[in-house]
Recover the amino acids of this structure.
């Protein structure tokens, strides 16, 4: 079961402390989440991460798909067992890595065609494929497949990417079937405030147990990033205490 509850909230800044319960343990939020791109946090063993109080790590869907492959990890008993980490894991959707392969990929409404950074082999990833990979990995939290847009960009391209992200989110929600894994939607809309708010509202209609903010740290200044966060903070869905998934 997944559950989130707010422990304390600042009336002036809106800053919150909370507890997020997952099948592999409780996460005290806010939390720093180290990145274990290829099923390992570089230069650290799992017991060392435990010793310094790490509560959750992030695995990278694209890199794990490329090597060693989701099937191998699934056969090994899932990502937790494969990497000997028995605490919560979040996997990203692969969207940001595909974004970073700008010279090697082609985006369509159906998905993304891209070339492997390892050997140049061609692959096509749809929202449904991202869900299949993440379900095989067995992370506690999976992210919906989205299009991450570099800044600067035009308002027109940002809207097209936002529309794809919302369409893909719906396909992810429909395809995802693992009940011990929470699926979160991702808010896009680049630096355009109205698009960001619209994206939130339309993702809420699809209904996810959680939402992430995407499309930041993609070339914008710190001032632009903080401006968008200030816009999003009062608009993001608020959960006081709720069972997210059973």
């Amino acid at each position: 079961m997944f559950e989130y509850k707010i422990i304390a909230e600042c009336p002036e800044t809106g800053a919150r402390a909370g507890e997020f319960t997952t099948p592999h343990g409780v996460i005290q939020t806010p939390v720093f989440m180290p990145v274990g791109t290829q099923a390992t946090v570089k230069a650290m063993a799992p017991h060392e991460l435990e010793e310094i109080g790490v509560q959750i790590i992030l695995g990278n869907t694209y890199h794990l798909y490329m090597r060693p492959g989701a099937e191998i990890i699934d056969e090994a008993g899932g990502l937790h067992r494969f990497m000997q980490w028995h605490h919560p894991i979040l996997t990203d959707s692969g969207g940001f890595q595909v974004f970073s392969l700008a010279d090697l990929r082609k985006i369509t409404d159906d998905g993304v065609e891209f070339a492997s950074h390892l050997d140049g082999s061609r692959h096509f990833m749809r929202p449904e494929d991202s869900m299949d990979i993440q379900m095989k990995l067995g992370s506690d939290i999976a992210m919906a497949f989205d299009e991450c847009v570099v800044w600067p960009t035009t308002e027109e391209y940002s809207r097209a990417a936002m529309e794809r992200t919302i369409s893909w989110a719906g396909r992810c929600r429909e395809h995802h079937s693992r009940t011990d894994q929470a699926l979160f939607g991702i808010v896009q809309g680049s630096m355009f405030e109205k698009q960001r708010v619209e994206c939130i509202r339309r993702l809420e209609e699809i209904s996810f147990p959680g939402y992430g903010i995407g499309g930041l740290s993609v070339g914008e200044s710190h001032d632009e990033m903080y401006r968008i966060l200030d816009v999003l903070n009062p608009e993001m869905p608020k959960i006081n205490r709720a069972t997210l998934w059973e």
About this structure: The first helix runs from residue 46 to 51. The mean pLDDT is 93. The chain has one domain: 2-245. The radius of gyration is 18 Å.
